[in-house]
């Protein structure tokens, strides 16, 4: 449908592996000095090429975007796939130059349906980055994730033109772990870190734009109740979250005070990716009276919601009933780590996380 496709995702999530399966007619990897040199004069290098062209790590040469518009307009026998690891700048730069010509696909590492429900605990502990998940042991996986974090801070962030010291950003990232699954107060976090709230927003933008964290915005409508209007924060990859907290295996995780928050973030990411909706279309809802809904979205002209419970057998709560009534939900799912699925009330269903997949729908 589109002459240009952007595959976006964090470092080492499988973008290049996926692109290599497309059997491109021409492949440029801008981390390869030879390929980068070939594109020093991009129009001369690209204008005579036809078929499928793949350009990996395109954030290294943002000046290519206006040229790509010209090239795809001039020749309909040319399709371009671009890969990148920094979403916000890439989307802004590409949408300015390629409006109506480009589609976006987010790749976030292994999904639950990729590895099967029997491996769910390993996915939770190690995260979805392929090299971490496929490591021979928890020790090797943990070592890889720690090296990944170091490389990300010391090499990838500076290559994006960001001059924040790696040690500073690592301390900030570690501090965010303690806000995982909680309402984010920029001013409070700034006071704790000794910087302004604007600096906190800048650091959060960097980590969100490189797919490290998810900022979930609040949903509020005029329903006569005071609602929270600050966002919630989650680390996208559970394995990186555990590495930052020095949690090395499932035994340590089950004894950690962050167990519930870890599972909520893990389950939320699985559901968000299963829904296939844009991040900007997903919300949470929280009233000052204590009623809350972990995930809210609209589809087909109706409202839907999900609650995440790390419990053996979730029960019906007043908060769920309030969410159904106030948000006029067509359906509310309570996702938990158990195996059985059962109804709690009309339009409220308990669902095992293992059953959340491509066949799970509403």
Percent in strands: 15-25%
**Are there runs of 5+ residues with pLDDT below 50, and where?**
none
CATH architecture of the largest domain: Orthogonal Bundle
**Derived structural class:** alpha/beta
The share of residues in helices is: 40-55%
Level-1 CATH class name of the largest domain: Mainly Alpha
Strand order of the largest sheet: 6-8-7-9-10-11-12-14-13
Please, how many helices?
16
Rg on CA atoms, Å: 22 Å
**Biggest β-sheet: count, sense, barrel?**
9 strands, mixed
What is the element string, with H for helices and E for strands?
A: EHEHHEHEHEHHHHHEHHEEHHHEEEHEEE
Features:
362 residues; alpha/beta; Rossmann fold; Arc Repressor Mutant, subunit A; five-stranded parallel β-sheet; 16 helices
How are the secondary structure elements laid out?
Layout: E1 4-8, H1 15-20, E2 26-29, H2 33-38, H3 42-46, E3 51-56, H4 64-74, E4 78-84, H5 87-98, E5 102-106, H6 112-115, H7 120-126, H8 130-133, H9 138-159, H10 166-177, E6 182-183, H11 186-193, H12 197-209, E7 213-218, E8 232-235, H13 238-244, H14 250-254, H15 259-275, E9 283-286, E10 292-299, E11 302-308, H16 318-327, E12 329-336, E13 342-345, E14 348-352
Helix pairs in contact: 4-5, 7-13, 9-10, 9-13, 11-12
